[in-house]
Amino acid sequence: MWQQILQSVRSFKYPWRSVILAPAALGAGGLLVCWLLSRRKIKTLEVGDGWWGSGERPPREKEDERIRSFKIETSDREIQELHQRLDQARYTLPLEGVAFQYGFNSTYLQRVVAYWRNQFDWQKQLEIVNQYPHFKTTIEGIEVHFVHVKPPGIPKGQASRPLLMVHGWPGSFYEFYKIIPLLTDPAGHGLNEDVVFEVICPSIPGYGFSEAPHQRGFDTLAAARIFHKLMQRLGFQEFYVQGGDWGSRITKNMAQMLPKSVKGLHLNVVFITSGGLGRLVSLLLGAYVPWLVGLTREDSRRLYPYWEKNVYELLRESGYLHIQATKPDTAGCGLNDSPVGLAAYILEKFSTWTDRSFRDMDNGGLERKFSLDDLLTNVMIYWVTSSIVPSMRFYKENISNINTAPDARIGVYVPTGIAAFPQELAHCPRSWAKKLFKNIVVYSYMPRGGHFAAFEEPELLAQDIRQLVRKVEHL
């Protein structure tokens, strides 16, 4: 029988053989192309170098690479001057019944300032802030401040995982103080100790106790490079990174820059600035047939009505962005001179970025998720360091070229975890995120929480970071 079959094949005329052989050749060629593409080198961001100190850059060997212990301290004179300014504050009466719709309600602001002046204990808060080890080191001409917390104990047969956590605006390293113990000492907080972290929380240059750049052009790429140098200086060849707000873009850049060093990337906000025709089609069809364009029911609930939730809402909340991306020094001068103005400007974000509905409350809902002590500690970090102006400049350095920056054209291939909080300023579905993040291993719809995830929902965020590590390391 087999001989008859072979004879039949040999008897086929040439055109029939072509019909059989052509698809086979195409299939083999397709496999070859796929194999070649799979071996193609992943594009990465150029690491480059920089100098952000004042004056000319000295010879490389002269930069002090020591890591120096640091303690946050303020003088009595600084606090006395602060109190004098608080006592001399002037207020404008709010419109009747507007709550936080026009910004920070000045009636409630007077209550906050009274607490700041008469009840807030800065020395007590300094003890809390200094409970973790602080350090400084000089990188590219400027002093970089960071908190470095090692686990109190590691289970036998395990090693701690280094984790770099990067804040955003108007936050600081202090945002992570509630999540640090959950990550470094899980057993002490009733959590599974299969994953224990060694946490490093730097201050972005120009924020808090990190020196402000003296030269123009300091953007997220420069911050990413500096933080890579910091981790190398600490002796870490591989590590995890986590970020929200500006920290999200900085850690993303770190993954694009040196992917072999970043074992995993975890983000609690994803901003996709361009989407093209595919995004438009997704938006048009997603409200009616979400499954057809890769959206889930939860995506639809968070996205639609689209104009209300993603266009009008962002317009309501992005006025600050236009100021800081164009003339940051103008508004910054007043904020740097007035502690009351600074508190109103910063704390208003902790209201509406935590929950949009807080705009309708007379107190902005601030004390629903945070204590005044924690909120004012963050404000004090900006006040005692005079860092509000350089922190605002970070917007101008980045947003002027956000669509033409080199990182906009390079994918992220390291294992990525995304925690999508329901009250975040904008929702990014997994189907949109994967256009940039090519290896999403965890995508979580968080049950509650807003923009300041580590500050507001430390337990939820810690759980999601652990989930990423377990997936990456197959635990």
Cα-atom radius of gyration: 26 Å
Average predicted confidence as pLDDT? 90
Strand content: 5-15%
Largest sheet: 9 strands, mixed
State the share of residues found in helices, binned by percent. 40-55%
Q: Please state the overall shape, judged from the principal axes of the Cα atoms.
A: globular
Number of helices: 20
Report how far apart the termini are: 54 Å
Strand order, largest beta sheet: 1-2-3-5-4-6-7-8-9
Give the strand tally.
9
Low-pLDDT residue spans: 8-26, 31-39
Query: In terms of structural class, how would the helical and strand content be classed?
Result: alpha/beta
> What is the string of helix and strand elements?
HHEHHHEEEHEHEHEHHHHHHHHHEHEHH
Explain what the structure shows.
The termini are far apart. The chain is an alpha/beta fold and 475 residues long. It contains 20 helices and nine strands.
Summarize the structure.
This protein has helices at 2-10, 14-38, 76-87, 106-118, 122-129, 180-184, 220-233, 246-257, 276-286, 297-303, 306-317, 319-324, 328-337, 339-352, 366-369, 372-385, 388-399, 430-433, 453-456, 458-473; strands at residues 67-70, 134-139, 142-149, 161-166, 197-202, 239-243, 262-267, 416-420, 440-445. By secondary structure, the protein is of the alpha/beta class.
